[in-house]
Here is the input.
Amino acid sequence: GSTIGILGGGQLGRMMALAAARLGYRCHILDPHEQPCAAEVSAEFTRAAYDDRDALRRFADECDVVTYEFENIPVEPLAVLADKLAPSTRSLEVAQDRAAEKRFIEGCGVRVAPWREVDSAADIEVALEALGAPILLKSRRYGYDGKGQAWVRRAEEAAEAWDAIGRQPAVAEAGMTFGAEFSLILARGANGETSAFPPTLNHHEGGILRTSTVPAGPQIAPFTDQAIAAARAIEEALGHVGVLTVEFFACADGPVVNEIAPRVHNSGHWTIEGAQTSQFEQHLRAILGLPLGDPTLVSAGATMENLIGDDVDRWADFVAEPGAHLHLYGKGEARPGRKMGHVTRLGSAASGPSVD
Ligand code: ATP
Ligand code: MG
Ligand code: MG
Here is the structure.
């Protein structure tokens, strides 16, 4: 069997490795941490920094294809992986820098929130003036789960916000008014074949995804065609191979892209039990040159609930609940805000937990 290399050993890598094992592939994880949760379910683990070229070279020698489960990886050292990397470094460099990402998406003719580059507290005041209050300051790199972000309502808050995000290159976005948020998870093969999962309605709390529901419902339905066209345009322009996720705001005048991820995504975890093909298997199919799988629902709907921090203490309730599909990531300490697992329930969306 072939060996799939995965850069990053978090829960996304873990679930990808589990999907790979089912298809008869071995996985080799590369991650700088001591005991990443994906390593436990993989054949091999290399503990190395992502910019350690010697380690990357040895890793590539042992793998037939290399992919990544997160986008915060320095791009230059990956040149040693050459043609084995999918998606390519193009998708990575666009998606790891919010300014590059927004420019790229706008270049595809797709709407994002009005934005400005910010490199100082003074720039924040300029952006506030130009975009109108409130604005959301986001570090260009390394942000996830709402980290590296700060809202700014008045010019007097600029200095504090600049400090709060660690005085690093950032973007400021106009605060958007939207009825709901949704995401599209697409896959594209090297031969150009594409496939999209149904749009997923996402509910966030404190910048962290709380629940994802399909079908996304009447709030989202009018946006679906336009959103799929936008996501396809981005995917094609990147020449993306693998799964790509596009997050949207459902605004009164149409869908607006929030951000993209060049990978499988938390909002797609429902596909493990809820779709004919999971997002993890779909990603593997795309990067391995296999035909893409069927992305349709297996039941009337599905709801995924994240277990964040001490939510995981309720695991025994979920184990006992008929029809609740429990996933625990084997991460150890349940720090506040840390994603420890998730639960998926099939059936009509209405039978899942309230998303309002
Ligand atoms: P992740 O990568 O984990 O999805 P992130 O740290 O990259 O999160 P964003 O997706 O940029 O963060 O933002 C997190 C949430 O904050 C969004 O899902 C949305 O609820 C809210 N948000 C982000 N940008 C805006 C905006 N311009 N206006 C209003 N709300 C916003
Ligand atoms: Mg993000
Ligand atoms: Mg996001």
Remarks:
- The two ends are 46 Å apart (CA to CA).
- The first helix runs from residue 11 to 22.
- The chain has three domains: 3-85, 114-174, 180-351.
- Residues 7 and 68 are 4 Å apart (CA to CA).
